[in-house]
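Batch manifest, entry 17 of 40.
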Amino acid sequence: MTTGQYTVNDLLRVMQRLRNPEDGCPWDLKQDFRSIVPSTLEECYELAEAIEHGDYPHVAEELGDVLFQVVFYARLGEEQGLFSFPDIVHTLVDKLLRRHPHVFADGEIEGVVAATLDVAEVKRSWEAIKRDERAARAQGGVLDDVPVALPALPRAQKLQKRAALVGFDWPDAAAVLDKLDEEQRELQEAMAAGSEAAIADEMGDLLFTCVNLARQLGLDAEAVLRQASAKFEQRFRAMEKSAAAGSADLRALTDTELDALWRAAKVAR
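Output type: C-alpha coordinates
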Protein backbone atom coordinates (compact mmCIF):
# COMPACT_ATOMS: atom_id res chain seq x y z
CA MET A 1 0.00 0.00 0.00
CA THR A 2 1.30 3.45 -0.96
CA THR A 3 1.92 5.96 1.81
CA GLY A 4 2.05 9.71 1.39
CA GLN A 5 0.97 11.49 -1.76
CA TYR A 6 0.76 9.81 -5.13
CA THR A 7 3.06 11.12 -7.87
CA VAL A 8 2.90 11.62 -11.63
CA ASN A 9 4.63 8.26 -12.00
CA ASP A 10 1.80 6.66 -10.03
CA LEU A 11 -0.71 8.31 -12.37
CA LEU A 12 1.13 7.01 -15.43
CA ARG A 13 1.16 3.52 -13.92
CA VAL A 14 -2.59 3.71 -13.18
CA MET A 15 -3.18 4.62 -16.84
CA GLN A 16 -0.98 1.74 -17.95
CA ARG A 17 -2.99 -0.64 -15.78
CA LEU A 18 -6.30 0.69 -17.09
CA ARG A 19 -5.16 -0.03 -20.65
CA ASN A 20 -3.72 -3.47 -19.85
CA PRO A 21 -5.33 -5.86 -22.38
CA GLU A 22 -5.41 -8.69 -19.86
CA ASP A 23 -6.85 -7.11 -16.71
CA GLY A 24 -7.55 -3.48 -17.55
CA CYS A 25 -10.83 -1.57 -17.69
CA PRO A 26 -13.10 -2.64 -20.58
CA TRP A 27 -14.27 0.94 -21.17
CA ASP A 28 -10.77 2.41 -21.22
CA LEU A 29 -9.57 -0.35 -23.54
CA LYS A 30 -12.25 0.55 -26.10
CA GLN A 31 -11.19 4.19 -26.35
CA ASP A 32 -9.04 5.83 -29.02
CA PHE A 33 -7.87 9.38 -29.79
CA ARG A 34 -11.17 10.43 -31.34
CA SER A 35 -13.50 8.79 -28.85
CA ILE A 36 -12.15 10.64 -25.79
CA VAL A 37 -12.21 14.10 -27.36
CA PRO A 38 -15.78 14.78 -26.08
CA SER A 39 -14.64 13.84 -22.56
CA THR A 40 -11.67 16.18 -22.87
CA LEU A 41 -13.88 19.10 -23.86
CA GLU A 42 -16.38 18.31 -21.10
CA GLU A 43 -13.63 18.23 -18.47
CA CYS A 44 -12.28 21.60 -19.64
CA TYR A 45 -15.73 23.17 -19.37
CA GLU A 46 -16.22 21.68 -15.90
CA LEU A 47 -12.88 23.19 -14.89
CA ALA A 48 -13.98 26.59 -16.23
CA GLU A 49 -17.24 26.34 -14.27
CA ALA A 50 -15.43 25.51 -11.02
CA ILE A 51 -13.12 28.51 -11.53
CA GLU A 52 -16.07 30.82 -12.25
CA HIS A 53 -17.71 29.72 -8.99
CA GLY A 54 -14.48 30.18 -7.01
CA ASP A 55 -14.75 26.57 -5.81
CA TYR A 56 -11.02 25.96 -5.53
CA PRO A 57 -11.09 22.48 -3.94
CA HIS A 58 -13.25 21.53 -6.92
CA VAL A 59 -10.82 23.35 -9.24
CA ALA A 60 -8.04 21.06 -8.01
CA GLU A 61 -10.22 18.02 -8.70
CA GLU A 62 -11.14 19.23 -12.18
CA LEU A 63 -7.49 20.00 -12.98
CA GLY A 64 -6.80 16.37 -12.12
CA ASP A 65 -9.49 15.28 -14.56
CA VAL A 66 -7.93 17.44 -17.30
CA LEU A 67 -4.49 16.02 -16.49
CA PHE A 68 -5.92 12.52 -16.78
CA GLN A 69 -7.02 13.35 -20.30
CA VAL A 70 -3.43 14.30 -21.17
CA VAL A 71 -2.14 11.08 -19.63
CA PHE A 72 -4.76 9.10 -21.57
CA TYR A 73 -3.63 10.60 -24.88
CA ALA A 74 0.00 9.99 -23.89
CA ARG A 75 -0.73 6.31 -23.25
CA LEU A 76 -2.50 5.94 -26.59
CA GLY A 77 0.45 7.61 -28.31
CA GLU A 78 2.94 5.34 -26.59
CA GLU A 79 0.97 2.21 -27.47
CA GLN A 80 1.02 3.23 -31.14
CA GLY A 81 4.65 4.32 -31.12
CA LEU A 82 3.69 7.95 -31.83
CA PHE A 83 4.82 9.79 -28.69
CA SER A 84 5.04 9.38 -24.93
CA PHE A 85 4.36 11.47 -21.83
CA PRO A 86 8.04 12.53 -21.61
CA ASP A 87 7.80 13.63 -25.25
CA ILE A 88 4.80 15.82 -24.37
CA VAL A 89 6.66 17.38 -21.44
CA HIS A 90 9.80 17.96 -23.51
CA THR A 91 7.84 19.60 -26.35
CA LEU A 92 5.99 21.84 -23.91
CA VAL A 93 9.09 22.98 -22.03
CA ASP A 94 10.95 23.58 -25.29
CA LYS A 95 8.08 25.71 -26.60
CA LEU A 96 7.82 27.74 -23.38
CA LEU A 97 11.54 28.47 -23.39
CA ARG A 98 11.41 29.47 -27.05
CA ARG A 99 8.37 31.71 -26.63
CA HIS A 100 9.71 33.52 -23.55
CA PRO A 101 13.14 34.84 -24.57
CA HIS A 102 12.46 37.83 -22.30
CA VAL A 103 12.58 35.47 -19.30
CA PHE A 104 14.92 32.60 -20.24
CA ALA A 105 18.27 33.89 -21.46
CA ASP A 106 19.76 31.76 -24.28
CA GLY A 107 16.77 29.42 -23.98
CA GLU A 108 18.03 28.03 -20.68
CA ILE A 109 15.67 27.35 -17.77
CA GLU A 110 17.96 29.10 -15.29
CA GLY A 111 19.05 31.80 -17.74
CA VAL A 112 18.09 35.25 -16.45
CA VAL A 113 17.40 38.22 -18.71
CA ALA A 114 18.35 41.55 -17.17
CA ALA A 115 16.02 43.76 -19.22
CA THR A 116 12.28 43.66 -18.66
CA LEU A 117 9.43 44.09 -21.15
CA ASP A 118 5.96 45.48 -20.56
CA VAL A 119 2.86 43.44 -21.37
CA ALA A 120 2.38 45.03 -24.80
CA GLU A 121 5.96 44.23 -25.79
CA VAL A 122 5.57 40.66 -24.57
CA LYS A 123 2.44 40.22 -26.70
CA ARG A 124 4.22 41.56 -29.79
CA SER A 125 7.16 39.25 -29.20
CA TRP A 126 4.81 36.29 -28.61
CA GLU A 127 2.96 36.87 -31.86
CA ALA A 128 6.21 37.31 -33.81
CA ILE A 129 7.54 34.01 -32.46
CA LYS A 130 4.29 32.20 -33.25
CA ARG A 131 4.37 33.71 -36.76
CA ASP A 132 7.85 32.27 -37.26
CA GLU A 133 6.64 28.90 -35.98
CA ARG A 134 3.77 28.90 -38.48
CA ALA A 135 6.17 29.78 -41.28
CA ALA A 136 8.40 26.86 -40.26
CA ARG A 137 5.35 24.60 -40.59
CA ALA A 138 4.59 26.08 -44.04
CA GLN A 139 1.59 27.88 -42.55
CA GLY A 140 2.21 31.31 -44.01
CA GLY A 141 -1.37 32.61 -43.84
CA VAL A 142 -2.35 34.94 -41.01
CA LEU A 143 -5.32 32.70 -40.15
CA ASP A 144 -3.43 29.43 -40.43
CA ASP A 145 -3.51 27.13 -37.37
CA VAL A 146 -6.68 28.68 -35.92
CA PRO A 147 -8.42 25.39 -35.01
CA VAL A 148 -11.69 24.70 -36.81
CA ALA A 149 -12.82 22.66 -33.81
CA LEU A 150 -12.78 25.66 -31.46
CA PRO A 151 -16.20 26.70 -30.13
CA ALA A 152 -17.71 29.34 -32.39
CA LEU A 153 -17.31 32.36 -30.08
CA PRO A 154 -13.62 31.96 -29.22
CA ARG A 155 -12.83 30.98 -32.82
CA ALA A 156 -14.48 34.13 -34.14
CA GLN A 157 -12.54 36.20 -31.63
CA LYS A 158 -9.26 34.50 -32.52
CA LEU A 159 -9.83 35.04 -36.25
CA GLN A 160 -10.54 38.72 -35.60
CA LYS A 161 -7.44 39.14 -33.43
CA ARG A 162 -5.28 37.53 -36.11
CA ALA A 163 -6.70 39.83 -38.80
CA ALA A 164 -6.09 42.82 -36.53
CA LEU A 165 -2.37 41.95 -36.40
CA VAL A 166 -2.04 43.05 -40.03
CA GLY A 167 -4.19 46.16 -39.57
CA PHE A 168 -7.52 44.71 -40.72
CA ASP A 169 -9.59 45.98 -37.82
CA TRP A 170 -12.13 48.57 -36.73
CA PRO A 171 -10.67 51.84 -35.40
CA ASP A 172 -12.70 51.69 -32.20
CA ALA A 173 -15.78 50.25 -30.49
CA ALA A 174 -18.01 53.06 -31.76
CA ALA A 175 -17.35 51.98 -35.35
CA VAL A 176 -18.33 48.42 -34.47
CA LEU A 177 -21.56 49.68 -32.90
CA ASP A 178 -22.40 51.34 -36.22
CA LYS A 179 -21.69 48.05 -37.97
CA LEU A 180 -23.91 46.28 -35.44
CA ASP A 181 -26.80 48.61 -36.37
CA GLU A 182 -26.17 47.83 -40.05
CA GLU A 183 -26.20 44.08 -39.45
CA GLN A 184 -29.39 44.37 -37.42
CA ARG A 185 -31.12 46.21 -40.26
CA GLU A 186 -29.96 43.58 -42.75
CA LEU A 187 -31.33 40.84 -40.49
CA GLN A 188 -34.67 42.64 -40.29
CA GLU A 189 -34.75 42.88 -44.09
CA ALA A 190 -34.02 39.16 -44.42
CA MET A 191 -36.79 38.36 -41.93
CA ALA A 192 -39.21 40.54 -43.86
CA ALA A 193 -38.27 38.72 -47.08
CA GLY A 194 -38.83 35.37 -45.36
CA SER A 195 -35.65 33.77 -46.72
CA GLU A 196 -34.39 31.18 -44.23
CA ALA A 197 -30.93 31.08 -45.82
CA ALA A 198 -30.61 34.87 -45.73
CA ILE A 199 -31.86 35.00 -42.13
CA ALA A 200 -29.26 32.44 -41.03
CA ASP A 201 -26.52 34.31 -42.92
CA GLU A 202 -27.42 37.69 -41.43
CA MET A 203 -27.83 36.22 -37.95
CA GLY A 204 -24.30 34.86 -38.23
CA ASP A 205 -23.01 38.28 -39.31
CA LEU A 206 -24.77 39.88 -36.33
CA LEU A 207 -23.20 37.43 -33.87
CA PHE A 208 -19.77 37.84 -35.48
CA THR A 209 -20.05 41.60 -35.09
CA CYS A 210 -21.07 41.20 -31.43
CA VAL A 211 -17.86 39.23 -30.86
CA ASN A 212 -15.93 42.03 -32.58
CA LEU A 213 -17.53 44.58 -30.26
CA ALA A 214 -16.60 42.53 -27.19
CA ARG A 215 -13.01 42.31 -28.43
CA GLN A 216 -12.84 46.06 -29.04
CA LEU A 217 -14.07 46.61 -25.48
CA GLY A 218 -11.32 44.33 -24.14
CA LEU A 219 -13.80 41.62 -23.18
CA ASP A 220 -13.76 37.90 -23.85
CA ALA A 221 -16.95 37.04 -25.74
CA GLU A 222 -17.16 33.51 -24.32
CA ALA A 223 -16.72 34.71 -20.74
CA VAL A 224 -19.28 37.53 -20.92
CA LEU A 225 -21.86 35.26 -22.59
CA ARG A 226 -21.32 32.59 -19.94
CA GLN A 227 -21.82 35.30 -17.32
CA ALA A 228 -25.02 36.46 -19.00
CA SER A 229 -26.28 32.88 -19.20
CA ALA A 230 -25.55 32.34 -15.52
CA LYS A 231 -27.44 35.55 -14.68
CA PHE A 232 -30.42 34.45 -16.76
CA GLU A 233 -30.40 31.03 -15.10
CA GLN A 234 -30.31 32.57 -11.63
CA ARG A 235 -33.23 34.89 -12.38
CA PHE A 236 -35.30 32.21 -14.09
CA ARG A 237 -34.84 29.87 -11.13
CA ALA A 238 -35.99 32.70 -8.87
CA MET A 239 -39.10 33.02 -11.04
CA GLU A 240 -39.78 29.31 -10.67
CA LYS A 241 -39.33 29.54 -6.91
CA SER A 242 -41.69 32.51 -6.64
CA ALA A 243 -44.31 30.79 -8.77
CA ALA A 244 -44.07 27.60 -6.73
CA ALA A 245 -44.44 29.61 -3.51
CA GLY A 246 -47.78 30.79 -4.86
CA SER A 247 -48.75 27.29 -6.00
CA ALA A 248 -48.57 28.43 -9.63
CA ASP A 249 -47.12 26.81 -12.74
CA LEU A 250 -45.06 29.09 -14.99
CA ARG A 251 -46.70 27.54 -18.04
CA ALA A 252 -50.12 28.62 -16.83
CA LEU A 253 -49.18 32.26 -16.19
CA THR A 254 -49.97 35.12 -18.54
CA ASP A 255 -47.28 37.23 -20.21
CA THR A 256 -48.00 40.02 -17.76
CA GLU A 257 -47.61 37.69 -14.77
CA LEU A 258 -44.38 36.25 -16.16
CA ASP A 259 -43.03 39.74 -16.75
CA ALA A 260 -43.85 40.70 -13.16
CA LEU A 261 -41.99 37.66 -11.83
CA TRP A 262 -39.02 38.46 -14.06
CA ARG A 263 -38.88 42.07 -12.87
CA ALA A 264 -39.05 40.91 -9.26
CA ALA A 265 -36.20 38.44 -9.87
CA LYS A 266 -34.07 41.22 -11.39
CA VAL A 267 -34.67 43.47 -8.37
CA ALA A 268 -33.89 40.65 -5.93
CA ARG A 269 -30.54 39.87 -7.58
